[in-house]
Amino acid sequence: xxYFSRPQFSSAPRVARxxxxxxxxxxxxxxxxxxxxxxxxxxxxxxxxxAHPTATPVHHTAPVRMRRTPHHSTxxxxxxxxxxxxxxxxxxxxxxxxxxxxxxxxxxxxSPKEIAAFTPGVTAVNATSGSTPIFSIRGVxxxxxxxxxxxxxxxxxxxxxxxxxxxxxxxxxxIENVIxxxxxxxxxxxxxxxxGSVNIESVKPSDKFGGYLDWGYSSYNTNTGxxxxxxxxxxxxxxxxxxxxTKGDGWQHDLHTDKRYGAQDLLAIRNxxxxxxxxxxxxxxxxxxxxxxxxxxxxxxxxxxxxxxLADGTIGVGPNAYYNRVNVGSSRVGRKEDGGGVSVNYEHxxxxxxxxxxxxxxxxxxxxxxxxxxxxAQVADYHWDDTYIAQSHDMHLRTNIGKIFHLxxxxxxxxxKIDGTYTSYRAFQFGVPQANLxxxxxxxxxxxxxxxxxxxxxTHNLDFIAAGRFSYDERGFHGGTRDVDGIFGGVPGANLSxxxxxxxxxxxxxxxxLRYQVVPGTYLYAxxxxxxxxxxxxxxxxxxxxxxxxxxPENLIAYEVGVKSSLFKNxxxxxxxxxxxxxHNRQTxxxxxxPGNTTSLSLGPISRARTRGGELSSTLHNIVPNLDLxxxxxYLDAQAISAVNNIGGLPLLSNxxxxxxxxxxxxxxxxxVARYGVDVNRYRVTLQASYxxxxxxxxxxxDPNGKTNKISSMGLRMELSPKSxxxxxxxxxxxxxxxxxxxxxxxxxxxSRAQYLQTPRWVGVDLHYNF
Length: 771
Known about the structure:
By secondary structure, the chain is mainly β.
């Protein structure tokens, strides 16, 4: 893993009426932008400005690991592209962490949320059975467990914005690298975000035939098959198809029925076709599909029996249950999810820069039943039934004017819509066979933005950075919670809460900074930037109208200083930063008391909050022969400056005082990876050890049970391969010490405690063959 640095969207009538108007504005702006050929860019990716293509190359070089990857042979052109990209990350005035596809495979990273374990300052947890991971960077994200909300982190799949967690389910296949940018983004691509961005880039088609085959077998009868094949169809058309399928038994067992939960049945396919139009233009067509038929995990409810006056094991698992024991009973649990989409990326290289355009659309259908309360009785089981559509377009020009002024100018627009019904089954709680609350809704979001990013060389070693963005967001919501069986008011189907409204939000954001080259390969930088996250609605079934209401936009001002250094001929890299974030109206999850003597999670604002901290990461490559070391450390101090004791008049289960800790901000976290290789005759044996650790953290405010354990995991891996790297055989163990920390816990609707536990020890073998 190389720790260097780099690589958001309304159902109300008002939104619907404005879509055509906004798209017309977008087309007009795009037309005016494309008439500015002098503002073209000079890099061949969506990264930061680089030198003029005909000028002297960038004089800062970052460490590059020149080992053969399993996906394709390494040509001099490949090496130059990788070196150029890594150099750009290294010289960027901001913190960026990069993991290669090879490193993801070595660390057995199979889903986007697992990236967080090896990236400083990043957390990711599942707040439900798996399809709604919550991402946070430096404590900035969105604490919501409902699938309708997008966080303060921009997730991009091959440059296309994925606004909702469900859209990146299963897409971690055939990956080139994962790039995590920190701090407010949106000044050189995509959508404005407060916390940062995660860009997942797949391996692109090339003019060489080749590929690989993977097969793995691991704990709980889990089989994994993967392949990728690259085929040059003609001299100007190249195709790459990637496939991944994982199927395995669940690791959880029901106390009474011994049924398994947490089973995997995940299929993903991606086909990329590259059309070389001429020596300056190319087009990339991306078609992808995901299907998930796994069995959701169940949380454990540790005191539901005691709260309800029952013997341990009646509806819960009791306070001392074994880590893999759950109590689901006859509750319906299952997953049926399908998604797919298409995108087109066009690039044209001018002698003064490059023009890029990315357009895509994605669809996702989710029909999932969760035993969300962790109890065998229906206290708050959930049925997630929704359909997503998300479309986005980004185009930009990058150029280098006079070799001292680097300019990016671009425009972004996106539109997404969710139609769904989220149902909470509560028969046991109210003692009635059918006692259900259902939120039937439609939500639409429209987002547009125009951005400019500049880097000016003041002196040979000093650069001034200035960027600005104007954004317009419009979000609408139509729907609310229905008392399906008349439990609360005696009228079946009556609305307990209802909204039919929309809100819009125009916003200017910007960034200024300085970057100073101390010596070649070593930089100091400082920046001030601001970002925002649009207002949002809470779509879970809630019995009080206040819990459904609109939450105002979140604004953040970020101050950061840092250093990046590459030493000893790129064998040692060090990156460190200190930052200070100031929030206004931070959106966060609270536990509030609802009518009917129940509690519920809901979203609300903290008027003022602050996060301060620092990060340090380092890579040592071959300083000791055949040994690679890399590690990271992060510190966070995240506090609510303002006290909160209610949401729209609803009292919190536990008041939030000033200087209370914020959710998803562990005070300390660190990771370390060591790899050592030794030649034995014609073969090479490689040993790898990894360790990750994150401090405990809050997951919701006002909830005495909403706190995780300290989470740690040790992994070991041994590989055997011929020196040609034609094939690799490996055995591995993840979570070798078999830790069972709680990764997400909360107070249920009956005031009992439910928790999700980390995946137990996992032992496996995998075979990898290059062709």
